[in-house]
Amino acid sequence: MRISELSRRAGVAVSTVKYYQREGLIPDGERSAPNQVDYDERHVERVRLIRALLETGGLSVSAATEVIRVLDAEDASLAEAFAVAQHAMAVTGLQAPASGARERVERIARARGWAFTADNPGIDAAARALEGLAAIGFDAPETYLAAYADAAAATARVDLDALAELGDPDRVAELMVVGTVLGDPLFAGLRRIAHQDATHRLFPAAGAPAADPQEDS
Fold first, then answer.
1. Domain boundaries, the chain
2. Contact indicator for 98, 125 with CB cutoff of 8 Å
3. Rounded to 5 degrees, what are φ and ψ at 155?
4. If we measure between CA atoms, which residue out of 163, 144, 82, 76 comes closest to residue 117?
């Protein structure tokens, strides 16, 4: 297919496809004539993947490049793919959280028997969240933090169950990476909907959206 068809199939502008090419995010097409390059289904899938990583996942081009590199590496392990995806999502340039907040996050993870490394970017992310809550006068109790940890564990199990159903190692690696990146906005989006529902139920107010009459049937 020509680049115009690739653009249409992938749902992006031709200029976007060319930008991805310049950044080395998608492989070159096959030159069939001096002024003609052909693309195939692999290019469509790759453009869709890059779009998801950049637009939905919010990764930078450099972070997406690292993710693609590990996906394309034949000898990369699933553990390496997962680590690259996790670090690609980490926000750089932020001040390190206090040791006390980190220790609290690590303590609740160890209490659940989780296996993790000290450089997991999730530790700092969670520790910063705890510091932010403390800054507005909310010292999150253990029950609060435990509930979040349990929800995270349940979500992680669902993610891994989805991987276990795939037989193709390449598909497993791709879903692990993309699921890691896109799982955060998916969870955040559902949590916001649940927040609105819980607020409506616990703090009803005039003008609040009505509950679905079928939900309790």
1. 93-202
2. no
3. -65, -40
4. 82
Place of tokens 């390059």: 37
Determine if residue 160 is left, alpha or beta; phi over 0 gives left, psi from -120 to 50 gives alpha, anything else beta. alpha
Query: Whole-angstrom Cα distance, residue 59 to residue 176?
Result: 16
Taking the CA atoms of 112, 178, 67 and 96 in sequence, report the sign of the dihedral they define: negative
Largest pairwise CA distance in the chain: 68
Question: For residue 210, is pLDDT > 80?
Answer: no
* pTM score: 0.73
Token pair for 217: 């049937």
Measure the CA–CA gap between 182 and 4, rounded to whole angstroms: 27
What one-letter code names the amino acid at 217? S
* Strands (DSSP E) found in the chain: 30-33, 36-38
Token pair 């995010």: residue: 25
Burial 171-185 (b: 16+ CB within 10 A, else e): ebbbbbbbbbbbbee
pLDDT at residue 92, as a whole number: 63
Q: How far apart are CA 84 and CA 61, in angstroms?
A: 14
Nearest to 100 by CA among 134, 146, 76, 75: 134
